[in-house]
Specification:
It catalyses: sarcosine + O2 + H2O = formaldehyde + glycine + H2O2; sarcosine + (6S)-5,6,7,8-tetrahydrofolate + O2 = (6R)-5,10-methylene-5,6,7,8-tetrahydrofolate + glycine + H2O2. It comes from Paracoccus yeei. It is a single chain. The protein is of the alpha/beta class and 423 residues long. The chain has helices at residues 14-22, 50-63, 95-109, 111-115, 133-148, 158-164, 191-204, 248-255, 317-328, 379-392, 405-409, 415-419, and strands at residues 40-46, 68-71, 87-88, 126-130, 154-156, 179-183, 187-188, 208-210, 215-221, 224-230, 233-242, 261-271, 281-284, 289-293, 299-305, 339-350, 356-359, 365-369. The strands form 3 sheets. Strands 1, 2, 8, 9, 10, 11, 17 and 18 form an 8-stranded mixed β-sheet that branches. An 8-stranded mixed β-sheet has the order 5-6-4-13-14-15-12-16. It has a two-stranded antiparallel ribbon with strand order 3-7. Helix 2 crosses helix 10. The radius of gyration is 22 Å and the shape is globular.
């Protein structure tokens, strides 16, 4: 955005559109300011992706803390926030997971109104296909768990799935569709709009969003954080929140501690645009692929993570072939489409495939990472819980189970087995 320090955003409305149309749209202000960093802030958040911006927003909205800088080594939303397949759901098995993801889904449902910015939330429904007897048992178990958690999900038959999604082949010879776990409230949102909406709201509160500002070192003294050294100079802070997804271990090493995560590339692709044919979000975990159709008509396709640790943000042909080959049997029409583009993001994987929202061995440094391949759906709930942790110094009920101490205590929140997929 512009280097102008102007922070006025105004309220978006039909009247504002009409007013600006009358003056040839010359009166729109920048959505957020891009100031130079000050010497000191109460809180510095490293990472201007969805989770970092949401944390800043709820620090201001819920806790009245606005002396905040959100610094980003690249451009706002240029990491995993802009590199995912936009799936939103909360049908998790473990109680702690269901609680934070359902909080996130509830916040997503009203987020456009809350931010006064259209995030294009589309609760079109999410269907997780059961294509083995093991998945049938697992998903029925999840339905029962969700009932106890007050998360609305249901088991659906193959016949109903065919009615809901005519393009599907339910009689595949290797992987027939035996049923599915359906969450009507699940869906998608526009990933860029989520970041932009939070950024606009944070800037309007007086927070500083500082792009192209890479952290080169973390200063500590007497076991407490003192400052971060960046490519735009030294920035002092009382508290530091590290929210940088796949680069979390790199930043933690600068501060003198280690995190139990691995960084792996996750790839996705979209097809050429076609007429509407898929109004659900589909996850086929046995063949490890997921599918939805964008507003522009593109088929958005994602798969599993790379089989080796890396920091790549690009795709690879062998992974595209593996993902598409797996989905073609269940969705034969995909075989006739051309690929439009592909990309990759760096995801941070914990051993139990659940996130970390925690204090750290260094005083007043807090970390939010480990969301793996499920980070986009958690953005509002993650920001809400992380803001509470940073503001109070201790976790609230949403973050309490996701501390670093669980790895020392063997108190895992195992979603890898529960979900049967990378997240």
């Amino acid at each position: 955005m512009s280097a102008s320090p102007t922070r006025g955003t105004g309220k978006y409305s039909v009247f504002a559109i009409a007013r600006e149309a009358m003056r040839l749209h010359t009166g729109w202000k920048r959505a957020w300011a891009s100031p130079e960093p000050k010497k000191k802030y109460k809180i510095v958040i490293v990472g201007a992706g969805g989770h970092g911006l949401a944390t800043a927003y709820y620090l201001g909205k819920n806790h009245g803390i606005t002396d905040v800088a959100i610094i980003e080594k690249g451009w706002l939303g240029g990491g995993n926030t802009g590199r995912n397949t936009t799936i939103i759901r909360s049908n998790y098995l473990q109680d702690a997971s269901a609680a934070i993801f359902d909080k996130s889904l509830k916040l997503y449902e009203d987020l456009s109104q809350d931010l006064n910015y259209n995030i294009m939330f589309s609760p079109r429904g999410l269907l997780m296909l059961a294509q083995t007897e093991h998945e049938v048992r697992g998903y029925k178990r999840t339905v029962y768990a969700n009932q106890l958690q007050n998360v609305a999900t249901e088991w659906v038959t193959p016949e109903r799935i065919k009615d809901m999604l005519p393009i599907i082949n339910i009689d595949g010879p290797r992987y027939p569709v035996l049923g599915g776990l359906y969450q009507a409230r699940g869906g998608t949102a526009r990933h860029d709009a989520v970041a932009w909406g939070y950024a606009r709201a944070c800037s309007a509160m007086g927070m500083d969003i500082i792009q192209t500002c890479e952290v080169k070192g973390v200063e500590t003294a007497n076991g407490q954080v003192r400052a971060v050294n960046t490519t735009k100079g030294r920035i002092e802070c009382d508290k530091l929140a590290m929210i940088v997804a796949g680069n979390s271990s790199v930043l933690a090493e600068m501060a003198g501690f280690r995190l139990p995560i691995e960084s792996v590339a996750l790839q996705a692709l979209v097809s050429e645009p076609i007429k509407p044919c898929c109004d659900l979000v589909i996850m086929a975990n046995t063949v490890h692929g997921y599918l939805s159709q964008s507003d522009k008509g593109e088929m958005v396709i994602g798969g599993g993570t790379d089989g080796f640790n890396n920091y790549s943000q690009r795709g690879s042909w062998h992974h595209v072939e593996e993902t598409v080959r797996a989905l073609v049997e269940t969705f034969p029409m995909l075989s006739r489409l051309k690929m439009l583009r592909q990309w990759g993001g760096i995801v941070d994987m914990t051993g139990d495939r659940s996130p970390i929202l925690s204090t750290t061995p260094v005083g007043n440094i807090f970390v939010n990472c480990g969301w793996g391949t499920g980070g986009f759906k958690a953005i509002p709930g993650s920001g809400w819980a992380m803001a509470e942790l940073v503001a109070n110094g201790t976790p609230g009920p949403l973050a309490a189970e996701f501390g670093l101490n669980r790895f020392r205590e063997g108190r895992f929140i195992d979603e890898s087995v529960a979900a049967g997929v990378a997240h």
